[in-house]
Amino acid sequence: MFDTIGPQIQQAIDGIVGNPIVQLGVRAVLIYVVLIWLASAFWAFRDMQQRTANPVAPYLAAAFIVLFTPALFLFAILLYRIVRPKETVAIATERALAEEAMLAEIEARPHCANCSRAVHEEWIICPTCRNRLRRVCPSCSRLVELDWSLCAWCGKDFERPEAPVAAYLPGTARRGAIGAPMPGEPPAPGYPGMIAPEIAGFREP
Ligand SMILES: [Zn+2]
Ligand SMILES: [Zn+2]
User: Fold this and answer.
1) How far apart are CA 146 and CA 158, in angstroms?
2) Gap from CA of 124 to ligand 2 centroid (Å)
3) How far does residue 201's CA lie from ligand 1's centre (Å)?
4) pLDDT per residue over 39-50, tens digit each?
5) Contact 32, 71 (CB under 8 A)
6) Which residue, 83, 108, 129, sits at the end of a domain?
7) How far is the centre of ligand 1, averaged over its atoms, from the C-alpha of 118 (Å)?
8) Which residue from 143, 189, 182, 139 is spatially nearest to 163, judged by alpha carbons?
9) Domain boundaries, position 182
């Protein structure tokens, strides 16, 4: 019984394999697999380019896929996906920039030069270490920085001592104390009101 069925099956298989349409289909599938294999190598090349600045690594990744032949390249893709660098270069750069910006922001926040604690913009003394942060302009009472040589708000010159407006002589057009120099004039020698007490002690914390 098998003697008669065996050759028949063999004949049927031969007929299928020999069929030009089937042969064409098989060939098309094989060509497609080869194309996928080559495309995978190209994908690995591009993928590695995005993940490393190393110029050789993309070629190695592509060669790795190619070496696994069209029959086994899927295993190569699996391996590549496991060992490839986790982050792309763009994301790593973005993260580094964000970290840098955060650090700069922390640094830009007002802080005490002595104890580095955060302080309010308008504080004049650090409440932690008593370090002098700012001073008050004796002329306009606004806050001025310690290194300002004159008040940015009212223009008062902290470097040049000014006569206190202590006296006013009626009948004279001169403003200021008797014998006090007008702004721009050199002070008279030995003028007692040359250095006002509040100016003399002004720079001390
Ligand atoms: Zn402090
Ligand atoms: Zn002022």
Assistant:
1) 11
2) 15
3) 22
4) 999 999 999 999
5) no
6) 83
7) 8
8) 182
9) 160-205
For ligand 2, the distance from its centroid to the CA atom of residue 16, given in whole angstroms, is 102
Ligand nearest 111 Cα, by number? 1
pTM score over 0.70: no
Ion ligand 2 neighbours (CB, 5 A) are: 137, 139-140, 151, 153-154, 156
Average pLDDT over residues 119-147: 92
The predicted-structure confidence for 60-116, as pLDDT tens digits, reads as follows 999 999 999 999 999 999 999 999 999 999 999 999 999 999 999 988 888 898 998
Alpha helices in the chain (DSSP H): 2-18, 20-51, 57-67, 69-83, 89-108, 197-200
**What is the structure's pLDDT at 6?**
82
Between 171 and 45, residue with greater pLDDT? 45
Residue 111 in domain: no
